[in-house]
Amino acid sequence: MDTIAAASHSRSTLNTMASLPYRVDPEQYHIYGHRRAVVVVALALVLFISALDSTIVSVALPVIGADFDDYSQASWIVTAYLITYTAFLPIVSKCTDIFGRRPVLVFSTLFFMLWSGACGGAKTMNQLIIFRALQGIGGSAIYSAVIVTISTIVPRIEIAKYTPMIGTVFAMSSVAGPLIGGAIVSHIHWGWIFFVNLPIGAIGTCFLLYGLKDPQQEPLSWNMIARRVDWIGSFLLLASSVLLSFALQVGGSTYPWISAEVLAPIVISVCLLPALVYFETRHPEPLIPLNLFNGRNYTLIVTFTLCLGAGFYTTTIFLPQRMEVVDLVSPITAGIRMLPQLLLTGLMSIVAGGIVVKTRRYRGIMWASASIGPIACGLLSILTAHTSFPQQYGFEALAGIAFGTTLPVSTIIVQFGTERSEIAAATGFQSFARQLGALIGIAADTAILNGVVTGRLNLLADNGGPLADPTLRGAILQNPAGLLGELDPASRAYVQNAYSSGFSKVFIFAAGCLAAGALATFGLLHEFPSELAADTQDAQKGDVEPDEVKSSDIESGRQLGVDGHRITVYTEKGDVESGKQLDVEEHKITDDTEKGDIESGKQLDVDEHKTADYTEKSDVELGKQLDVDEHNIADDTEKQVQSYSQAIDGIDDKNVSISLLQIASEPLHDQNSGGDIMPVDSVQGSSGSSSHLSTTLDSVA
């Protein structure tokens, strides 16, 4: 009775899932050959322009502020982008499940390009800030859709090969952003830092339209969309994220931390969280499936990612600033001197993915790389105005190794440890945690830096001199690199030392965040999926090609395992979608199954050599049995089967052990007639199919 109840519940679940247009077998998303190469290039291009806009604008802020004669709001050009970018990450990830990968990715890229053009043509500072907020939505959508698409266009075992592309692209954008931005504002109008996205995005969109295909599904009705979208959860998460992001961005700079403008958004944001949890537990397709946090690994990885966001963005944002202020180099030179960290971040992303694929282990590499991060930031904190650059490059290299390894491996752990149907939501929330950690880290870093520098400048002001002017001290805090040249040598040296001390405190804070994240990784369980290990071993033995036999095929009931090998029985479309499967436990076929048994719906139980009553059709939908009622397997395949069975061992009157046998979806060749025997999925016969199968099995036996 328990089995029947469980089967009934599972059938109900499958029926519900079948009514959802894009809740399909993940294997149907897989693409191969040149189309996969085209799509991977397209994903890299669109992800590059999304990541580029996080770094390219920073060097242009003084020029933009001067052009609009409005320095006070220039920082909002970056803030507006970061707020919407962070808030929409989990929302867009869920949209890929509802509308499909291809539509969401193409629309996101076009949306991003539209508002990039609008930013480049903005006529006022307020226009630019609004357009940047809208552009941030597009950038967030691109990032989320790219991560989800990578995890579904390839078999699960190959995810680790492609996920490192994300870290590589981000490293490239971090290098290229300041260089391209500095070159543009030095020679042409600043608007081209946004216009440069248009040709790159256009090429990426064309590649996506050519190579990326979603499975054919029923059209979505507005009623279906309304039922599937978590409207309340989306609103609550968006409101909470925007309010918290706003408070973190303006706190300590635009408004004091102890002020209504900062505290009120934080309090409201926190109060919205219980309501979000309440509604997420009641929606059939929640934006954030709370059951994800029942998994130990996912909870620990999200915690680690939150800490990693704070540490990673501290080095990529504040280390170049330190070079400009303390070492008095130009933005372009600072970008070049960041190459050791950024290049190693990209290189180690590729190496780490290869190690995970080769060893099928991820705990050791996570422990080692997560431990290097706080050490690297601790070493950066001891830099002074007189530290040699080779020594600084060595510290940067350590940081690059740590970040380049942990960024992709943490994502791989989430993708391997999550059900395929929940990968979009799981990776979306992980990305949200990383961006939230970045916002928290940047806000804390800014508060620490300003606090240390303000204290030092106030001490010097008490002794008189040029820094006694409070207006000048405030201007130095807003634009230190631009004003240092106007100070006398003694005051300049004092300001440089003040900032050097402030940046040291910032890197100590980053080291603490990364240390907390490293502690979380020591609680990870090794949960490399067993079916992935089996598939990898089969591929290495040469039995099957990795792209030909995928774990998702086995899970969806598409293959018949016989003597360690797979006989693929392709039924017609409806049966394939239902995942029919004949499971032979002991890899033997006995002649106990007579024609009458199959016609009356009896199932061959090889494990105990007994026949069981055939269950109803709904059990077949669970992928447990092969329904032969609507199919026709001709008995003239007997010789073809025998011609492929070169390693038959132990033939007797009762059973046959078949090895090295595979029946693929292509037509079989009949040696007698010289013709082709059609694959099962093309056979439309109805009557007599059970008889044909029985005849075939009897003849083999």
From TrEMBL:
Residues 39-529 form the Major facilitator superfamily (MFS) profile domain. Signal peptide: none annotated. CDD domains: MFS_Azr1_MDR_like. It is a multi-pass membrane protein. InterPro entries: MFS, MFS_dom, MFS_trans_sf. It is found in: Membrane. One of its GO terms (molecular function) is transmembrane transporter activity. PANTHER family: MAJOR FACILITATOR SUPERFAMILY, MULTIDRUG TRANSPORTER, PUTATIVE (AFU_ORTHOLOGUE AFUA_6G03040)-RELATED. This is Major facilitator superfamily (MFS) profile domain-containing protein. It comes from Fibroporia radiculosa.
